[in-house]
Every structure is written in structure tokens, then in C-alpha cells.
Amino acid sequence: MSQLEMRAADIQNGETTVTVGALATPALLLDKERLHRNLNRLSSRMAARDVVLRPHMKTAKSIDVAQCAYPSGPGPITVSTLAEAEYFARHGFRDMTYAVGLAPHTAERAMRLRKAGVDLKVLLDSREQAIILGAAGRAAGVAPSAFIEIDCDGHRGGLTAEGSELIAVAAAVAEAGVDLAGILTHAGESYGLRARAALVSAAENERAVAVAAAEALRTAGHECPVVSVGSTPTAHFAEDLAGVTEVRAGVYMFFDLVMHGVGVCTTDDIAISILATVIGTKPEKSWILVDAGWMALSRDRGTAAQRVDQGYGLVCDLSGKVYPDLIVAQVSQEHGILAMRSGSTQALPHLPIGAKVRILPNHACATASQHDLYNVVSDSSDAIEARWPRMRGW
Amino acid sequence: MSQLEMRAADIQNGETTVTVGALATPALLLDKERLHRNLNRLSSRMAARDVVLRPHMKTAKSIDVAQCAYPSGPGPITVSTLAEAEYFARHGFRDMTYAVGLAPHTAERAMRLRKAGVDLKVLLDSREQAIILGAAGRAAGVAPSAFIEIDCDGHRGGLTAEGSELIAVAAAVAEAGVDLAGILTHAGESYGLRARAALVSAAENERAVAVAAAEALRTAGHECPVVSVGSTPTAHFAEDLAGVTEVRAGVYMFFDLVMHGVGVCTTDDIAISILATVIGTKPEKSWILVDAGWMALSRDRGTAAQRVDQGYGLVCDLSGKVYPDLIVAQVSQEHGILAMRSGSTQALPHLPIGAKVRILPNHACATASQHDLYNVVSDSSDAIEARWPRMRGW
User: Fold this and answer.
1) pTM surpassing 0.90?
2) Which residues of A touch B83 (CB under 8 A)?
3) Alpha-carbon gap, residue A360 to A270, rounded angstroms
């Protein structure tokens, strides 16, 4: 049976006593206590600064996780695909930002959601997109709402806060009959940092550029109600959010080894891991083979450029305790090769055929996306408490 | 609507006239003519050498593709997960090799399939696995059949052909009541080659090691009916297959930029691509932004170590014609940044918002796995001829 078939069968049978150790592998585990701790950490931080937190659902892609973030009912979220927007709309979410630049087909599809009563705001950074969106709104009989994307650190799209193009795009937005929701920026370059001072500075730059863009629009006579910034590192290191109205972040829910390398979390905060089984050993090479390759872990090598390269993941025992320096050194599609980190003085642990390990991921968004469901566990029990499906596609 | 919902809706509506240009993006395209050409190329090559071709379904994961390989009914296949084995068994396939090392839970699950009449052979390289498999067979009331994995190039698991351990494992297999199907090896290191002579030599090494292992077993009194080798590069470069009874390969059906870099195919042979839409431009950086990031392309950077680094993919126009030197230089989750290859003398093409491109993948297995279905196209028409679902999971 596939994972989803097993899930359906378990539900039918009222099965509740599957333990972590008895799970077929590879499998995605989600530690609920760590998830709640991570959610509370950032939501408390934002509440203390009187700023709206708009969680990015691109990492979790799960209504069950969204309900952990919003236990008393749907709140504002960010999405990375319109399939996510449609999925969360079906589950009652109404206030969403689609934070990927607009194309003609996504404009039409977004307007269908808006027509259905979802306050879906979209993103653009050109006059062409404003015209496309205006036309899509008129065709659907709705008034579109859009953010103008601002580039705060040169990593992707967006306009600069100072240029005349920002004002020209805002004018095109108004001309096209589109409501200007505000400006939106993302400090993507912060993922490459490590020093606390540099992270604080990246957060301040993100804030300052966003506020400057909003002020430039207001000076030119445009309303700019929302000033939206965000990335997991800057959200956790921002000391001042004056002028910012909302913060977006996604990977903070789960954290991962890249975020650990940036210095935002400890390995004990990482809420997801991949359960794997030993399927071979190669004593002459000090290798242990497991049944988690790139299909289960993803090809993400985000720690390769960091101070500590974690290979394709850091290995823990079945209870989640890290084996110091034991990493997934190589992967093929369904094989992972565990080996000690180069230069380690630790001994390779004895892990016979059939032994189970947990692997902490480099990049939670990429690793989770390789799986159809979360096996929900907690630090305090070895039972699978629930199985939460993930959505995928576009 | 999600891709799968659209597919269901299209089928209900009898919709047959969706064109490539009208498809929502990102989307996975499969060129049926190229697929058939690739399938015929290797099956003719193997037939001429009187060797069984056992296609590896880990790349395609699709019954429709398997039926292109076997138009007159199911034949022998290789699978990388037991979910694949169960999926193909539901579609009538009976002769399968699960080419990943055995663990206790997969032994039990494999024996359930065997009990259901599927001739599923498994893989092991240790005495422990032989004992586990024998016990699983007895518990299920079936006689298991296993290959012993041979290591021909040091890239992963398996035993050497000369060592005493091979004979000891064969003895343990017999002792456990397991039928010895034969030996199996995979020249994984061939993916790192480029020169024709080196590829021919890797193929000959794979053959020679496999045959030596089979002969060592036969000398020790074991039958070794099947001598199974394979990788896409060695399958295409082997000059002599004396003593080999079957060849396994998977990525040859689609090919990809890594195989192009190895020298096994041209870019015109690559049968899958990702359709993407331009969502922004950054003229000051000579960047074009598209809506295909690592979620649509995968994080695979297999060409990074090759002579020509293709970034995250090589860009073609809507009809599939390569834009020389235009690659996906950077990706984030749902964004790709197109740029000219460093040092190129070509001009960046003019691609406005809404323009569509096709992106050839580094690694077909990884890129296809990011999608739930193939949009089947052909060189001679711009219509989507069919939508073929893919299976996933373990």
C-alpha cells in the first residue's frame, strides 16, 4: 500500500497505535511540540511589535499546520502557488497574498478566486502586469488588489524604492482600475548570512527600503496601506519594525539546517525529519547505506556554502538525538550514504541492517515537498499521533 | 483548479484541443515522438545483442510510458520502490526486480506481492538480509527470489566479485531457503564520464565484474541464471555483452542534460521539458524571471561538474528550439532567473511578460518527480494529445 492508502486504511480501522519505529520508510516526521514552539516564538515576537504576521504556507502546504498557526480560525496567509490559494480557500481562508509575480493566466485564475469571495492580493512590478490584471479584473467583474514588489537586496525581482519606475507602475495600477494594496519586499539575501550584526543589518535594510518605497508612493499621492516585509532570518533578527505593517515568513514553522547555519535556530528546534532504515553497510569505506536518497531528502545542498556543510542532512537516532558529525554524504534516487563528516574524531556508530535513523533536512520546504503526508510525532511519545496530508502542484 | 482536477474536468468535458501555449504553467511536457525514438534505440541495440532489456521505471513512474515500452503487453521491469511494484502489479506487470537493498519491512511487503502472484525479485548483499528474507518468505508462505548485488565501481553498495563474502552470502541465501536469481550490478560511476573510450571501458568493466561474480558463484556450486548489468551510459556504449543476460536502464527513455553532457544523446533527444511563463524582467541585470523554480525543475545540479554547466536547465522557445546559451541561472521555490551563460556572445532574447519557454532538465528522474502528470506533445503539433498521470511515494 502507498502512504496515502495506508493512511486511509488506518483511519478506517481506527488504528492509532503505529509507533515511529514501526513506520515504513522513508517517511516524513513532524514534531508537533517543536512546531508549536516555533509558531509561538515568531507570533509572540510580532505581537510584541504590533505587526501582523502573515505566515507563508509554501513550506507546510497543509491545512492541519495552518490550523496550528490559527487555532481559533483562519487568518492572513501568504501562498506561493494558486493551487495553494485554492486549497486554503476550500478550507475557509479568505485573506491571502500570492507572492509570485503575475502572468496572464494567473491573473485570470486569481480573479476567479476573488470573484468567489477570497480577498486574494497579487504581486507585480511592471506596467504590463498592471494592464493585464486590470483587464482580468474587468473580465471577471471584480476589482483586483495588488502589491508592487520592491527589490531590497538585488536577489530577484522588484523595483527599487527610489526610481521613477515605482511611481510609473503605481500610476499604471491606478489607471488599470487596480487597488494598490501596498508594497511587498523579501530579504532573500539574508539566507546567505551568519553573523548576528549582519542579520540585524539585513533586517533594517529590508525595513528601510520598504518604508522608503511606501513613502515615495504616498508623496506621489498614492495610498500605500500595507508595508509587507519578510524572510525567516530577518523576521527573527529585526530590532525595529517602524513603518512596517506586516511580516511574512514560512520556514520558521519547521526550521532546517540552513536556518541553523544562519543562526536562527538550534538543531533541537528543527521540527521535521526523514525516518530512514539501514539497508547495507560498507565497512571498508566506513559507509552505512539507508533507504532515503534524494527522492526522500531532496537535492537541496543549501548548507554547502555555509561554514558547516551538512551534506544532504544530519543524522539522528530514532528518538531524534543527533549523532555528532554523522551526515548523509552522498545520495542517489533511493539510496543515502551515511558517513562521518571529513575530519571528524567521532567513531561511526554501529547501525545494523534494519536500524532506523532520523535525518534533519537542509531545506524544510524542499524536503517536505518530496512527501505526501506528515507523520505527526512528539518528543514525549513514540506514537504517530496523526497523519496530515500535504497539497502539491500548481 | 489543480493540474489533476483540470485533467479530470477535461476528461469529463471531452476536451481534446488544449494547446501547449494555452497550458497553465509550470507544466511537465513529454514529447511522444522522442520517447518512442529513445525506446526503440535501446531496445533495438539490446535485441541485436540478444540481451533482455529490463527498463527501470524509476524515471517515468507511469503506466502509459511503460505501455509505450511494451505495446503488446507487460514485460520485465525494474522498480526503485515497492509502491512502484504495487502500482505496476495493479496494471498487469508480473516480472519485476526491486533494485534497492532489502530491509525487514520491505522484505515483508515484497513477499505479500509475491504471494499475490507477482514474480518480484529483491536485492541483497549481506547474510543478515538473506536471513531476514528467508523468514519473511516462510511467514508469507512463499519462496523468495533474490539477486546478490555486486559492486563494480565502488560507487554505492554491493560485494566484490573476488571476495569470499560473495560465496558466503550465496550460501546464506541457499540456507535461508531463498532462490538465487543471479547477480546484479550498476555502473553508477559512468555518469561522471565523457570520453567515448572511457564509457566503452566502464561498460566493459561492468560486464567483466558481473561475469566474474557469476562465474565465482557457479564455481562454488551455485546456479546464477541471471547476470544483470546496467546504466544508461554503459547500456549505450557497451561493445560486448558476452555472459550478460539482461541490461537495466531508466533515464534513456527521456534523456536529459546530464546524459547530453556524458555524450549519450543530443538536446533534440531530450523528451521532457518544463513549460514556464515569463513573470518579470530585470534589464539592468540581463535577467528574465519565469514561474519555474526548484519546485518545478528540482534542485538537481548534475551538470555543475560537467564540461558545460547548464545551471538549472537549458531554455528553448515554445516549439522546443534551444536558445543558445540561455540557461536557468538561479532558482528559488517558484522563481527561475534566466540569464546568458557566462562568457556567451549571444544576445539575451526579448521575452516579454506572458511569453512561454520550455526548459530542458538536468536530470529527468528528479525533474519529472516534481510533477503529477505528463502533458503529452509531439514535434509535429502544438496540441496536448494526452495527460498521463505519474505515481509517487514509497
Assistant:
1) yes
2) 2-3
3) 7
